[in-house]
Structure formats: C-alpha cells, structure tokens
Design brief:
The protein has 214 residues and is of the alpha/beta class. It has 7 helices and 8 strands. Helix 4 packs parallel to helix 5. Bound molecules: NADP nicotinamide-adenine-dinucleotide phosphate.
C-alpha cells in the first residue's frame, strides 16, 4: 500500500520504518521538508519525503502523527479542508493529552473528530496512539502475547484497511466501536501516562481477563 504519514517526528519516523520493512511504500511530510528528507534518507527507496499536499494526494491511506498544535496547520498545508483526503482512510494516532495532568486537550469531542472536521470527506480511524512507535520495530519476546491495538471508527472499509496495516506491524487490531468511543479511547493514553508518572506499570493496572472468561 502507499501510506502517507503526516508528521516528521519520532512517531512518523518509527512507523515509516516499520511499514517500509513490511514492504509498503511510504510518503512522509510535515511543515519541514528537510525533516522529512532526514527520515527518507535514513530509510531508503521505499520512503519518500514529500510536501503535505503530495502526501495527501498520493497516498491510499494516511496517518496523522502530529503534535496537537500541528494538526490544524499541517492538514491545511495538505489541502485536507478542500478534500485532498476525501474517501481515504485517515488513521489518527495523536495524543492530545496534557502530559502533566493526563487530561485531554479537546474540551469536548476527540482529537480524531478534530482531524475529521479538518479532513473533509475522509474516513477517520483512531488507532496506534497507545504504544511507542519504536515498539513496532521489534516483535514481542518469545512467550509474550502480541500487542492488542484498540481502535475505533465509523467506516467499515477504513477500519479494515487500518486493521491490515496494524497486522503488518505485528499488532492485533481490536475494534471497540464507532467514533463516539474515541474520546474514551484517547483518555486511556492519559491514564497510562499518569500511571507511569506515579511509578506503575500500566499493564498491571488492568485486570488480566482471558477472552473465554467474558
Ligand atoms: N512517539 C511515539 O512513540 C508516539 C506513540 C503514540 C502516539 N504518538 C503521538 O503521535 C504524535 C507525534 O508524536 P511524536 O513523538 O512524533 O512527536 P514529535 O517528535 O514531537 O513530532 C511532532 C510532529 O508535529 C509537528 N508539529 C508540532 N507543532 C507543530 C505546529 N505548530 N505546526 C506544524 N507542525 C507541528 C512537528 O513538526 P516539527 O518537527 O517541524 O516541529 C512534528 O512533525 C503525537 O500526538 C504523539 O502523542 C507518539
């Protein structure tokens, strides 16, 4: 698939590397073409540095890997308000969370809904916000379970595309509902951050429930 990543930071770089390893073509772009070039130069021919407009226009599925403050500006550079991402799956992996409090920055709604409003006609999915990007560069140790990627969205085809891309990273996709679940799912990141800040492993803060025990 041709995956377009909007963002040129750590998450964009890690996801580009993981998907390129999996045989995908990746376009990377943000407000700085120079930063995109650094990623592309590091990762080789499967990764192209591009303007946000080219990322949006050339991709089959897009990933928003931006700081909260960058979502509006970079989607505008991408022409998303004019429909450049219309009809395409757009995976939002952002954490619009105040790192000090763990509380969500959008006063209402969710970050993925904020993305949806700025990417007219796109098919948004919330996913991939909970694990570090670099975690997708290694597989779980022997005997450890694969990582479950909780996700939500309203469009079945977009969810299916996102699920394929998650499997290609080595994750197990788990749809928890529609976009009306997004704020709840995004809030989990804030809880995880607060647990880590208080010195706890978040994995030990949720019950260990085997599927057969539901
Ligand atoms: N890193 C991870 O492991 C990880 C895991 C899960 C989710 N996430 C989420 O993914 C998103 C990106 O994380 P990251 O670690 O890649 O962050 P990062 O390294 O700080 O990169 C942030 C990106 O946002 C851009 N940006 C920031 N402010 C901007 C503005 N005002 N206008 C335009 N662009 C702006 C940056 O552009 P410049 O470089 O030009 O400033 C860069 O492309 C965040 O929402 C984060 O919570 C990250």
């Amino acid at each position: 698939m041709r995956i377009g990543i909007l963002g040129t930071g750590g998450m964009a770089s890690a996801l580009a590397e993981a998907w390129a390893r999996g045989g995908h073509d990746v376009l990377v772009g943000g407000r700085s073409l120079d930063k995109a070039r650094v990623i592309a130069d590091r990762l080789g021919d499967a990764v192209e540095a591009a303007t946000p407009a080219r990322v949006a226009g050339a991709c089959e599925a897009a990933v928003v890997a931006l700081a909260w403050e960058g979502i509006g500006p970079v989607l505008a550079l991408a022409g998303a308000g004019e429909g450049s991402l219309a009809g395409k799956p757009v995976i939002d992996c952002t954490n619009a969370v105040d790192f000090a409090t763990g509380l969500l920055k959008p006063p209402t709604g969710s970050a993925v809904q904020y993305v949806a409003e700025r990417a007219v006609g796109s098919r948004p999915v919330k996913a991939l916000h909970l694990f570090a990007g670099t975690s997708w560069l290694t597989r779980p140790a022997a005997g450890q379970p694969p990582r479950t990627v909780a996700m939500c969205g309203d469009d079945a085809a977009a969810l299916a595309t996102a699920a394929t891309l998650i499997r290609d990273l080595g994750g197990v996709p788990a749809v928890i509902g529609g976009l009306d679940h997004a704020r709840q799912l995004e809030g989990v990141a804030g809880v995880v951050m607060r647990l880590v800040a208080e010195g706890h492993n978040p994995v030990t803060a949720v019950p260990d429930v085997a599927p057969s025990q539901r």
